[in-house]
């Protein structure tokens, strides 16, 4: 099943939940009246601000459902299966160690603004998958700035709670280099109540052995990627689907 299908299911579920609200139809009906009322810009802005408060909880519900749909989706085609053909000349292969194996990671494209990573609002994850035998191997178009801004415990299935950095917490960010093979490091996740610990370590030798054994068609020297732990711009939203990720130690 594709990510788009799960997104459709998630959004449809949210629409049904939102439709139960008595105030939603009233708010939808009044919006055209407000916008076309000819109010002065300042007054119109104040009115719309008040209406936005009514929509806030419904939007949050929509975010929850859509995030769940995304997290239960199958991995993207960017994730390479063992024995896969060599990537195209304009693609970069990334290797990431992940423990435990039931954690799904999602990298999204974005930009750097004032020292923070700003995730693209409407872009799908460029990498979305779980590890096989301890590693996730994927192909990505170079020159993108991508960040690991969402993870989830897949054992919970459709009810998996996504974890994501917010309010200035740091995420692993990478400017994808030109066609090459890069190692991002090894990550181990440790749940701790409502948060999750992130331990980074470096074992490029083990990652190279894994790649040579499972992906013989992917050749070339495995290099360490120039990653950064960059604060994110996303705000924490209630209900709590954005949970701070803290780095316990290791490579920063």
Overall description:
The chain is an alpha+beta fold and 252 residues long. The protein has 2 domains: 3-71, no CATH class; 92-249, no CATH class. It has 4 helices and 12 strands. It has helices spanning 3-19, 23-35, 41-71, 204-214, and strands at 92-99, 103-113, 116-119, 127-129, 135-140, 145-153, 170-175, 181-192, 195-201, 222-224, 227-231, 245-249. Strands 1, 5, 8, 9, 10 and 12 form a 6-stranded mixed sheet that branches. Strands 2, 3, 4, 6, 7 and 11 form a 6-stranded antiparallel sheet that branches. Helix 2 (23-35) crosses helix 3. Residues 1-31, 56-75, 239-244 and 248-252 have low confidence and may be disordered.
Helix/strand-derived category reads: alpha+beta
Q: Please describe the biggest sheet, giving its number of strands, its sense, and whether it closes into a barrel.
A: 6 strands, mixed
End-to-end C-alpha gap: 36 Å
Q: Topology as H/E string? A: HHHEEEEEEEEEHEEE
**Count of helix runs:** 4
Q: What portion of residues belong to β-strands?
A: 25-35%
Number of domains: 2
- Shape category: globular
Rg on CA atoms, Å: 21 Å
Question: Average pLDDT across residues?
Answer: 75
Give the structure's gist in a few sentences.
29% of the residues lie in helices and 31% in strands. The protein is α+β, with helices and mostly antiparallel strands.
How does the SSE layout of this entry go?
Elements: H1 3-19, H2 23-35, H3 41-71, E1 92-99, E2 103-113, E3 116-119, E4 127-129, E5 135-140, E6 145-153, E7 170-175, E8 181-192, E9 195-201, H4 204-214, E10 222-224, E11 227-231, E12 245-249
Parallel strand pairs: 1-8, 8-10, 9-12
Antiparallel strand pairs: 1-5, 2-3, 2-4, 2-6, 6-7, 7-11, 8-9
């Amino acid at each position: 099943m594709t990510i788009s299908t799960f997104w459709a299911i998630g959004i449809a579920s949210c629409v049904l939940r939102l439709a139960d609200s008595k105030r939603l139809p009233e708010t939808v009906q009044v919006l055209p009246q407000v916008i076309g009322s000819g109010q002065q810009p300042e007054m119109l802005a104040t009115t719309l601000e008040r209406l936005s408060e009514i929509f806030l909880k419904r939007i949050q519900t929509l975010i929850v459902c859509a995030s769940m749909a995304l997290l239960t989706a199958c991995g993207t085609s960017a994730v390479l299966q063992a024995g896969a053909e060599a990537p195209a000349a304009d693609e970069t292969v990334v290797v990431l160690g992940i423990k435990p194996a039931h954690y799904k990671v999602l990298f999204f494209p974005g930009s750097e603004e004032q020292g923070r990573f700003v995730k693209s609002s409407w872009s799908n994850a460029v990498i979305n998958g779980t590890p096989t035998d301890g590693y996730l191997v994927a192909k990505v178009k170079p020159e993108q700035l991508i960040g690991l801004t969402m993870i989830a415990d897949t054992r919970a299935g459709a009810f998996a709670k996504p974890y994501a950095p917010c309010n200035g917490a740091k995420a692993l960010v990478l400017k994808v280099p030109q066609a090459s093979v890069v190692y991002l490091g090894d990550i181990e996740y440790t749940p701790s109540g409502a948060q999750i610990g992130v331990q980074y370590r470096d074992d490029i030798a083990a990652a190279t052995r894994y790649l040579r054994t499972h992906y013989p068609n992917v050749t070339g020297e495995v290099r360490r990627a120039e990653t950064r732990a960059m604060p994110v711009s996303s705000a924490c939203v209630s209900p709590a689907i954005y949970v701070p990720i803290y780095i316990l130690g290791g490579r920063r």
